[in-house]
Specification:
heterodimer, A: about 260 residues, alpha+beta, Beta Polymerase, domain 2, Four Helix Bundle (Hemerythrin (Met), subunit A), 2 domains, six-stranded mixed β-sheet, about 15% strand, elongated, B: about 90 residues, Arc Repressor Mutant, subunit A, two-stranded antiparallel sheet, 3 helices, PqqD_sf (chain B), PqqD family protein (chain B), PQQD (chain B)
Chain lengths: ~260, ~90
Amino acid sequence: MSEDRTHQLEELRALDLLPESWVCVFEAGSLVRGWGNASSDVDLYVISEEPWTGEGVSHHPVPLVPAVVLGEEAFVGAMRWDIRYWTRGQVEQVLAKVTWQAFEQGAEELTLREVQLLDRLTFGAAAGGQELLSHWRVQVEESAFRSILATRILNMADSRVEDAVGQLEAGDVDSAVLSARAAFHYTVDALLASEGECGPGEKWRARRLRAVAPDVLPYDKYWALETMRSLDPADPAAWINEVLSVCRGITMEVDI
Amino acid sequence: MSTASPVTAESIPSVRPDIRVRKIRGTLVVAVPEQAFELAETTAFIWKRIDGVLTVGGIGELLAREYGIDVETAVEDTIEVLAELVQYGAVRV
């Protein structure tokens, strides 16, 4: 399915929000994934050779050169457009952080914004600069991005598993429940990352899991644990052990 | 001096909860304090079935079914593998 989005370029131009040196403009986010709702914004990424010279209604620090990503907002009809301005150089610097060589050497930590950019390059829909977007998408898919992210999240999951075990042994059952729950979330996110669903944040976790449909965690099983359906207040340890066992089973299937 | 294996067909093994496991390009790697080791295919099969409920004999039966070998041999192999994992500190019985 490919929708003509060239009108978005014209709108940006009309609003004086399109830099002269743009090389790629793409929409990403929930609307592109088909997950939108009445309150969804249009998330646009504008990539240019030179940094955006507008004032920017938001400034997002990034560990890159230049060290900031600017954001603008606009209303087009009833829709709010949330626009992020990256330079081609910034995009290429982020891609350089996720090569297999970088992974083998101990990859630099990616920030939330960098993870989001790489995820959105994967699922973005071009309004202009389709060829460049496709090139970047292939680069992301062939990179170690999934492995880097899955490894990082699995490490966090392991920490929560250890917390849950320790807390349970110490009789701090309520804390153990929370740690087990966090371990489950991290483990599911690692599984999703290994399957190419690398977007940060939990609000789309259920959608992403449906999209991936992993054999190791059928959706119904996921949802029962996510909603803590089998937690018996008289025996929370049983739920904790069930969750930790599921986490362990998933971890063994997350290929990195 | 002979040391009897702590693992028998009736033992119920469980993985130590602080053990970290990763699947790296298809191979399971287990990290215990101060070292990490790869699991061969049959060891990985056994490892995946350690759930704190199944006995060693039960795991051996699954191994026999999976690889088409007789149960007695499979249970012996399972005991041997698990004894090694216990020695590494990765599994408790």
